[in-house]
Request: fold
Amino acid sequence: MCANSLTIECEVPCGGVIHQWLCFQDVPFKPFVERSRQYERAYLAWETVRKVRNPFFVEGTGFEGYFVGICRSPEEMLDRLLQLGQGLLASNNRLYRYQQRFKSQLMKTLCGEIENPQAVAVWADLLGATLAKLRCNVHTNLETYRFQNETYWTVNRLPFMQYRQRDNKLEQVYRLGMFKMCSNGRMPLPLDLLTGSDYDAGLVVSTIGRFGHPLVREYLHENSHRASAERT
Reply:
């Protein structure tokens, strides 16, 4: 199914926040990475769907894998994505209605303009809650279930993600299995053509996956654990 692989080299999402926390808490990097391995398969599966095995778009968001067999066209999938994004934005607007400054920090953190630790935690929680709901599709739709199983079959054979610390940054190298995809029916994700609230919703769904990165999840887990221990 997978003849070769695609190598990705880039900075770790929210790497500045993680690097500062590692230094401040004096957390050894290699054991921290090893503890994050428990989240790797899920993230690599997400990236596989987003970049190399998207059934609707040339490159998508990662959410599309939960709608295989449910949506039948890129246009229908785009409508679902925008609904998801609008729901996430509405959630933040309700929770932080009177915190305009923090809402601004949420969007800037989403876009990578700043790295606010509290905003990182909010986006990660929203992503986790959304995926928990969408997993129902895997259990109730056979096509979705098969698509996920086939994706994980390949992901489970990929090497571990590799990291390096450089100056105040964290960099990563990882591989994704390549699938033979039929290009008929797939189209570019038209985010640049969206306007107003649709653009904001598209921005959210196309970017929020970065908060599911293994190092981000392990950082949030350990930071929360340490904070709880300090309060007791």
Observations:
- The CA atoms of residues 121 and 220 lie 7 Å apart.
- The beta strands are 2-11, 162-166, 169-179.
